[in-house]
Recover the amino acids of this structure.
């Protein structure tokens, strides 16, 4: 009489209509139905149930993000210690310090930053030159600490001259090879420093060979220049600061060698006196190469300053069009700064 009174298992599963059927009817349905009835599905535990329970125990009211939520949650910036999305709401308005400083800089600040970067590069040249002349510096120090009486009476003049000449020539080689460049990697800095040291020791070897040839009454051999585009590019790379300076010189229509017409009359007189003070032809040729290479290195800083002046003129023009011209903008416009980058 299960049809009339039902089955005792119905009370165990009140929400299961299948269990309320007569056993004979359930057998018939099991035989005739292609799909087997598995009973009511039990709620599956969420994979985040344990983490949510742990968070609730710690007093965190927000549940752990699910997989779908994690995929839509914006990634936190790399400055965050938690790259899995935690505390993303604290980082949503984050801006790097460099970006904030760049946005808040005025035209004068940008110009000062270029000059400050140039001064930093000059200081870095001094440190790199001392590193390349460490052996000469140690020789001078040993002379002062444990030198003989003659060296002490001469104030260690010999080792001091060797160190000062090494420091001066290494600095000039570094400048000529593009160490003053504002955008360089550490690898390029190391290549420039190593190549400058190599050029200095090659210069010393050439001087020794020339002196021995003169003592022997032989003709001094004519050697290729120490600094050339082919050798420097091969040692530093096609994308190095030296190669960029050479390219910039060509774009400006100037010669890569020393040309007195590119300098002011005062500077021309200084160069002539500087070359006349040298004794040998090799020294004069090297001096001309270094002067020309230093000029190419200085073109980058001049170009950066002109870019800053152009940006300042554009900003002043934009403020004038919007009717927000300041008193300083008016004075600069009256003095003709909008025509030639700041010089009347």
């Amino acid at each position: 009489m299960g049809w009339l009174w039902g089955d005792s298992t119905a009370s165990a599963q009140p929400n299961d209509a299948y269990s309320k059927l007569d056993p004979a009817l359930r057998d018939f349905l099991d035989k005739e139905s292609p799909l087997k009835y598995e009973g009511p599905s039990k709620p599956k535990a969420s994979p985040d149930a344990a983490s949510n329970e742990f968070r609730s125990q710690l007093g965190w009211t927000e549940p752990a993000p699910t997989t779908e939520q994690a995929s839509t949650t914006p990634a936190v910036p790399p400055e965050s210690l938690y790259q899995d999305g935690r505390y993303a709401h604290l980082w949503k308005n984050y801006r790097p310090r460099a970006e904030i400083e760049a946005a808040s800089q005025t035209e004068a600040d940008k110009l000062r930053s270029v000059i400050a970067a140039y001064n930093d590069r000059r200081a870095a040249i001094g440190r790199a030159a001392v590193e390349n002349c460490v052996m000469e510096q140690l020789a001078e120090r040993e002379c002062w600490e444990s030198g003989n009486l003659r060296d002490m009476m001469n104030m260690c003049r010999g080792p001091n001259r060797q160190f000062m000449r090494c420091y001066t020539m290494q600095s000039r080689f570094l400048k000529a090879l593009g160490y003053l460049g504002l955008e360089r990697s550490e690898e390029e800095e190391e290549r420039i420093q190593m190549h400058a040291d190599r050029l200095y020791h090659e210069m010393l070897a050439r001087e020794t060979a020339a002196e021995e040839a003169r003592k022997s009454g032989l003709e001094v051999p004519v050697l290729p220049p120490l600094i050339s585009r082919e050798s420097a590019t091969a040692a530093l790379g096609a994308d190095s600061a030296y190669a960029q300076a050479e390219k910039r010189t060509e774009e400006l229509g100037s010669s890569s060698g020393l040309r007195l017409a590119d300098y002011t009359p005062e500077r021309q007189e200084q160069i002539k006196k500087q070359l006349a003070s040298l004794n040998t032809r090799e020294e004069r040729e090297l001096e001309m190469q270094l002067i020309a290479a230093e000029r190419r290195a200085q073109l980058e800083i001049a170009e950066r300053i002109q870019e800053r002046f152009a940006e300042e003129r554009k900003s002043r023009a934009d403020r004038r069009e919007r009717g927000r011209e300041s008193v300083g903008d008016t004075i600069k416009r009256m003095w003709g700064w909008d025509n030639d980058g700041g010089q009347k």
